[in-house]
Amino acid sequence: MIPESARSFIDIEPAVAEALDAGAPVVALESTIITHGMPYPQNRETAISVERIVREEGAVPATIAVMDGRLKIGLTGAERQALAMGGDMMKLSRADLAFAISERRTGGTTVAATMIAAALAGISVFATGGIGGVHKGAEKSFDISADLDELARTPVIVVSAGPKAILDIDKTLEVLETRGVPVVAYGADVVPAFWSRSSPRPAPLRLDRPDAIAGFFRTRHALGIAGGMLVANPVPEADEIPEDEMAAYIAAAQAAASAENIGGKAVTPYLLSKILELSDGRSLATNIALVENNARLASRIAKAL
Ligand code: PSU
Ligand code: MN
């Protein structure tokens, strides 16, 4: 499956390789959430519990990262630990994935880079927390995540809890529509807003069953329509933080980010950690719950495929 030219840069963990050879369900998982999205030790615990959930559901987890210049498809416990402990970790997107490999660096892969690696390995389903998108104030900053372009070009189903609510969700949905990316709300009529189940935005598409999502993906492929799709899976009710409560934390975090002149790749990690502080840890508990919930749905879609 992996193109000959890429083989010498990639290590596929034995359990993942075996599953791919057998055509068994595999779910890709990202690692920026470990290196830049959550503090230690919750990042490590979440990475472990998400992998366990995928196995419980009958699929094989493949957490993707770059370690000392090797593109890892599936991690050992020691590798996961090293990523979680942090240090000199890059945040890798399409622009810098190959840089990290050629310079023998270590880093977490974002949604965009994880999609690239998953597609290389022949993995079609990927679970994350929230995708990157159009930042508030993008009309001035031009800060639009490479995740959106990747969804438009790379054939992977990304299961998320919607765009992260720190973003301009309306503009994010507009860009996804322009770039031809289907946004499928799972069992919901509105697009969920990451920490919150509801938002004022009607779902562009709605599906209620994992096998229907798999069928939609296969149909697109059969018609020769390139690119991925975004599944927006609402956070479980027991874990959500209502939209108006989140809005206050987000506004305060944004104000702090501009006061401190935070820009570029640092914006998303800064906002997430500021919101964690302001919400007294509740945003992190919700973030963990929604990633676990997405891993469960992604496993069911992978099995249906
Ligand atoms: N989901 C989370 N936490 C995260 C991310 C997603 O629950 O930290 C990461 C993903 O890797 C996503 C990235 O691709 O944030 C977006 O970063 P940026 O806005 O710089 O593209
Ligand atoms: Mn950005």
Number of strands: 11
Helix proportion: 40-55%
Number of domains: 1
Write the element-wise H/E pattern from the N-terminal end onward: EHEHHEEHEHEHEHHEHEEHEHHH
Under CATH at level 1, the class stands as Alpha Beta
Task: Name its key features.
Indigoidine synthase fold; 305 residues; binds manganese (II) ion; 47% helix; globular; binds pseudouridine-5'-monophosphate
Description:
There is one protein chain. The relative contact order is 0.15. The mean pLDDT is 96. The protein is of the alpha/beta class. The protein is globular. The protein has 13 helices and 11 strands. Strands 1, 2, 3, 4, 5, 6, 7, 8, 9, 10 and 11 form an 11-stranded mixed beta sheet that branches. The chain has a single domain, classed as Indigoidine synthase fold (3-Layer(aba) Sandwich), CATH 3.40.1790. Bound molecules: pseudouridine-5'-monophosphate and manganese (II) ion. Pseudouridine-5'-monophosphate binds next to helix 2, helix 8 and helix 12. Residues 30, 32-33, 36-37, 110-111, 128-130, 132, 145-147, 265, 268, 272, 287 line the site of pseudouridine-5'-monophosphate (PSU).
